[in-house]
Amino acid sequence: MLQRLPDDDRLLSADEAADFLRASRAKLYRLVKAGELPGYKVGATYVFYLRDLHSYVRRNVRAPRADQPSVPAHTPGS
Fold first, then answer.
1. Fewer Cβ within 10 Å of end Cβ, the chain: N or C?
2. Which domain holds residue 20?
3. What is the pLDDT of residues 66-77, one digit of tens each?
4. Is-above-0.85 flag for pTM?
5. Does pLDDT of 78 surpass 80?
6. Would residue 72 count as lying in a domain?
């Protein structure tokens, strides 16, 4: 019988990982090459653990400053 893995243990393809990070595949591969994001080569492609993507986001996303809105205000006509 197969056991279900926790969601953070889920493997994502390079396309799925890039979508998750809202980045290009080229940027994803640069992060792997720089050692900023673990990627695992399986055959001719890379796969990524969802937990590693969450960890990368936590390390690299800054909270907005208290004096700045988190979403830019919409200006009519722009």
1. N
2. 9-60
3. 766 655 555 555
4. no
5. no
6. no
